[in-house]
Every structure is written in structure tokens, then in C-alpha cells.
């Protein structure tokens, strides 16, 4: 068997066990290197699978209690100086699997983008909600984040039986729910919502960067980086800046308004 043929066989998801056994007895260094790489990938796949099973604990608990539609909810964008806060609500199909799914902040941009498309395609239902900087000023950022989350739930095409929420209690809410700190690290449903919300908001801020080119929104997503602050100082604030967030608030008092 040629090395290229070995490479092709080992690139398959489930190579034939008998062929694998033959290859392990092949003394060629090229074959052994390919096998070492294959084994490493298999170990990684197994690790991801076990992690996913651990992060399905709350979902499985809900399924065992008779719940059918379990919704994970998360938001992004509490800290930036500009742009909306964005929330996502996601109902995954029971038994679904998304390899490498985790808190969106712990994933590479490439992995987030990959999961974003896959989750949208395979989820039972999902919804995304923006709450603008004006509403953030009206309600404060904590309440605006909760409003975004609840609106996302209300926009779902499937009514959930139970909500799993990242760090935001939904008191006196008509749907049973459970809030947990660092939920995007503990629940696959919340992690899925985290990915949907982050990718959506990052893309949105890249679009805003075309309209407001001096603040580096395409790279900082509205957070107060050095380039963003330099842009504020040189060009003033934009209509998407949060007027009650420092240092934007102080710049308005000093007359730095570019609206």
C-alpha cells in the first residue's frame, strides 16, 4: 500500500479495523508517523466527546424530567463602549453533537464561525435579539441584557419547556428556568447560544466599522482598546456609542460629539 493510500484511509472518520491493524504492523516510518497523527486526532475527538457529555448534564436532567424543548440563553456585549448588547436563545435537538463546542470566548474565530453555521443549520430553533445603545442608556446595561435575553426567547418559533441561562436570573418568568454562573462552560445549550450571539455581534460591529471607520470596530467589537480611544479623542462619539459609559460620558461633557 502506497503512503498516499494510507493517508487517504486514515483521513476517514471510521477506518476499517482490520486495515488499521495491518498498518500498525507496517514498519515504514512514513506509515508510523501517519498513524501517530491519526491516534492523536482520535484522542482529541474522544476528549471533545467526553467534554460534550459532561456539558450535557443539565440538558439530560431536564429530559429525564419530561422536558422536550430545552433552551440555552446567553448574551454578549455588556462591556463595550459602542454597539448593542446581543442575546441568543437556542434549542438544540436531543442527541445532537457539535464537536469542540465551548464558551465562545475560548474558541478561535474560525471555530466560532464554523459552529455558528452548523448550529443554525441543525438546531431545532434559535433566535437573536439586539438591544440598542439607546435602550441600554434607558434601562442600564444589566436590565438591557435581561431584556435582550427574554426577547430572544419570545422570538423562538418553538416554545421552550425549560430555560438554561448564563448568569442571569429570570425571576417570576412564565417558563421554568435555571441560571448558572459560567453557564457557557457548563451547558451545551448555553454554549451554543454564546457562539450564535458572539458571531452575530462581531459581524455586526464589522459592518459598523464601514460606516464609522476611525474606531477599529472590526477588531475591537466596540471595546475600549487603544485605537478605539484614539478614535474617540480625534473624531468624537458616534450614534452607536453608549453615552453613559466612561470615557464616552466625559467626552460628551467636553463637547466631543460627532453625531
TrEMBL record:
HAMAP family to which the protein is assigned, alphabetical: RNase_HII_B (MF_00052_B)
Keywords of the record, alphabetical order, are:
Cytoplasm, Endonuclease, Hydrolase, Manganese, Metal-binding, Nuclease
InterPro entries xrefs = RNase_HII (IPR022898), RNase_HII/HIII (IPR001352), RNase_HII/HIII_dom (IPR024567), RNaseH-like_sf (IPR012337), RNaseH_sf (IPR036397)
The organism's taxonomy opens as: Bacteria, Bacillati, Bacillota, Bacilli, Bacillales
Query: What is catalysed by this protein?
Result: Endonucleolytic cleavage to 5'-phosphomonoester
Q: Which Pfam families match?
A: RNase_HII
- Kindly list the places in or outside the cell where this protein is found, as annotated in its UniProt entry: Cytoplasm
Record domain RNase H type-2: where: 68-257
Spell out the molecular function terms from Gene Ontology: manganese ion binding; RNA binding; RNA-DNA hybrid ribonuclease activity
Task: State the protein's purpose.
Answer: Endonuclease that specifically degrades the RNA of RNA-DNA hybrids.
Main site of residence? cytoplasm
Per its UniProt record, what Gene3D superfamilies does this chain match?
Answer: Ribonuclease H-like superfamily/Ribonuclease H
Sites where the protein binds a divalent metal cation: 74-75, 166
Please name the top-level EC class of this enzyme: hydrolase
- Protein's recorded name: Ribonuclease HII
The cofactor binding remark recorded in the entry reads: Manganese or magnesium. Binds 1 divalent metal ion per monomer in the absence of substrate. May bind a second metal ion after substrate binding.
Gene Ontology annotations for the cellular component aspect, listed alphabetically: cytoplasm; ribonuclease H2 complex
Q: Which cofactor does it need?
A: Mg(2+); Mn(2+)
Please state which protein family the record places this protein in.
Answer: Belongs to the RNase HII family.
The reply to whether Chaperone figures as a keyword in the UniProt entry is no
Q: Name one GO biological process term.
A: DNA replication, removal of RNA primer
Its EC number(s): 3.1.26.4
